[in-house]
Amino acid sequence: QVQFVESGGGLVQPGGSLRLSCAVSGIIFSQYPMGWYRQAPGKQRELVAGITSSFSTNYAESVKGRFTISRDNTKKTMYLQMNSLKPEDTAVYYCNARWVPTNAPLYDSWGQGTQVTVSS
User: Which of 1, 27, 80, 95 is the most buried (most CB within 10 A)?
Assistant: First the structure.
């Protein structure tokens, strides 16, 4: 079955940077649009950034110009480079395959996520 394993989170000061990784197994990774999602306490999970199988990208307005999504099909891994981090970026970050028309996650199963905390 599909498996998503997120890593790279941590505690960082405002203005700092982190790079998240998402290792995927159980699907033909290169064929799937993918997305990074995040869930802050008391809020619904939201799409942060998406990348298609042809490497087209899209971003939530709140992260445009600060986050960069990428993928390495040979490693079956997706990345999220996060710069100029703000306290409001604090959340658990997850990855999943993505249904492009709605940006909804494709699979019901999620990884454990990786916690990003932005605080001084």
Answer: 95
Instruction: State how beta strands 3-7 and 18-25 pair.
Output: antiparallel
CA distance 43 to 60: 15
Helices (H) and strands (E) in the chain, counts: 0, 11
Q: Provide CB contacts within 8 A for 78, sequence distance 6+.
A: 21, 22, 24, 34, 36, 51, 69, 70, 71, 72, 95
Q: Which two tokens stand for residue 37?
A: 């999602």
For 63-108, the pLDDT digits (tens) are 999 999 999 999 999 999 999 999 999 999 999 999 989 889 999 9
| Gyration radius from the chain CA atoms | 13
